Amino acid sequence: MNNLDFSVVIQAWPYLWSGLLFSLALTAVAFVVGLVLGTCLALVQHFEVPVLGKLVRGYVALMRSIPLILVLFWFFFLVPIVLGHLGGSGRPIPIGATWTAFITFGLFEAAYYSEIIRVGLRAVNRGQFEACQALALSTFDTYRSVILPQVLRVASPIILSQTIILFQDTSLVYVLSLTDLLGAASKLAQLNGRLVEMYLVIAVVYLAISSAASQCVASLRKRYAIAGLRR
Amino acid sequence: MFAVLLEQTADGQRYIDWLVSGLGWTLALAFFGWWIAFAVGVVVGIGRTVQNRPVAALARLYVEIFRNIPVLVQMFLWYFVLPEILPASLGNAIKQIPPPWGSFFPALVCLGLYTAARIAEQVRAGIEALPKGQVEAASALGLGGYPTYRYIVVPQALRLIIPSLTSEVMGIYKNTSVALTIGLMELTAQARQISEATFQTFTAFGAATLVYLALALIAYQGMALIDRAVRIPGTGPADDAVRPGATHAIEPIDSLPDAMEVVK
């Protein structure tokens, strides 16, 4: 326990701060991309679109079965090759670790969000669909105005909890040597040898952000429960 | 395409031997980590539900801390930070542990205690889902606090939560890959090493992916089997969990399991 010196952390703060901003940016992008794409994936499965539905199901099962670190390695290797083929040159186009991280997290989280929404879609009372039919709403309007809003509302606590886990998982970009909050701390720790202080401080930062966010989710859950539904 | 796995490595083995050794570490970590997680998780989960305020507060603190710090950061805390903040003699003794055990034990403790926090929440949810009458009947029969938990509450709660524990089982074996950051050569690390040695990235990662898929399938089927074996008679089959989409039964809209808050 000899001579912990947290003043190094104060000096290091601007660098840690920029790392934290990267973590938050990655979380935000992955949340938006993941949720939009995930909703599409869920709908494709829900409508049992021929061929595509099966493909999507396989994709989701695959993503949920392998570790995120392996997915990061895969995408770091695959995305340049795929882009090369799309670009027509056939030669891999290097995109760098940052882009890899954004693309991977977006596509990876989509699998998890789609599973939440798919379960949510199945949980909607049949009467809702029947009522929409009785009102002669088109399929698009049914989902756009009646079904999806309910699903998103009911699933929002789970979606948000998932997003908190996503925020914690962004630390795994460490394996791509990116400078997120953890990456910044570990790079500084290697320079100044103060790894105890560095890791303790960022642990506290992660803890504070995640638990504050979970408290918010818990109170949202209470406040926005659909009236009449016991929770 | 997998032929390269049978080629000789620089150290006289075959590449597939590297994968098998990686799989061994992954399984060892997941298996022993699971029992730590289960034991600690059940105790903490029970602690969350007892009347004793300090105990409940401690259990809550445990869950908050271990659930809200990324598992990778926890890994670093156990591996880098713990030996430094312990008394010097003990810390040095920990640093002297030869590899790979020097990475294995911190990883084991880390994954066990991290997963325990998640299991504790499931156990708590299971206990709270039991009808109140169970506890009331137990006290009407003159059972004290301990026998009530031991014979009435916990056995029922554990049987209830088996479907949601599936995602924790899947979580712990996937999280074993985080141990590569502290130098444990588990499956993902070996796949990366093979890819670097042979430049056959597709083959190396593909093989690892297939192994993880097989593990996921085994974990899933195994838990479904356990669920069927110990399900409380009369509580109805968890058909959806086993055959998603097979039934059109209407689920109550608030029945989205909290376990959907999945681990990676």
Give a brief rundown of this model.
The complex is a heterodimer of chains A (231) and B (264). Chain A has 231 residues and is mainly alpha-helical.
Q: Can you describe what's shown?
A:
The complex is a heterodimer of chains A (231) and B (264). With 231 residues, chain A is mostly helical. In chain A, 79% of the residues lie in helices and 0% in strands. Chain A contains 8 helices and no strands. In chain A, α2 (52-65) crosses α4 and α6 (139-169) packs antiparallel against α8 (195-223). The longest helix of chain A has 40 residues, at 7-46. Chain A is flat. Chain B is mainly α and 264 residues long. Chain B is 72% helix and 0% strand. Chain B is built from 10 helices and no strands. Chain B has helices at 15-49, 53-68, 71-85, 88-96, 101-129, 132-140, 145-175, 187-198, 201-230, 239-242. Chain B is flat, with a radius of gyration of 22 Å. The two termini of chain B are 29 Å apart.
SSE diagram, text form:
The complex is a heterodimer of chains A (231) and B (264).
Chain A: H1 7-46, H2 52-65, H3 68-87, H4 96-123, H5 126-134, H6 139-169, H7 181-192, H8 195-223
Helix pairs in contact in A: 1-2, 1-4, 1-7, 2-4, 3-4, 4-6, 6-8, 7-8
Chain B: H1 15-49, H2 53-68, H3 71-85, H4 88-96, H5 101-129, H6 132-140, H7 145-175, H8 187-198, H9 201-230, H10 239-242
Helix pairs in contact in B: 1-2, 1-5, 1-7, 1-8, 2-5, 3-4, 3-5, 5-7, 6-7, 7-9, 8-9
Question: Any descriptors?
Answer:
heterodimer; A: 231 residues; mainly alpha; MetI-like fold; 79% helix; B: 264 residues; 10 helices; flat
Q: Major sheet of chain B: size, sense and barrel closure?
A: none
Low-confidence stretches of chain B at least 5 residues in length (pLDDT < 50)?
A: 239-264
H/E series of chain B: HHHHHHHHHH
Rg of chain A over CA atoms, rounded to whole Å, is: 21 Å
Beta-strand portion of chain B reads: under 5%
Could you spell the SSE succession of chain A in H and E letters? HHHHHHHH
Chain pair forming the biggest interface: A-B, 56 and 56 residues
Rg result of chain B: 22 Å
In terms of quaternary structure, what is this? heterodimer
Structural class of chain A: mainly alpha
**Amount of beta strand of chain A:** under 5%
The termini of chain B sit apart by 29 Å
Major β-sheet of chain A, in short? none
Approximate helicity band of chain B:
over 70%
- The counted number of beta strands of chain B is 0
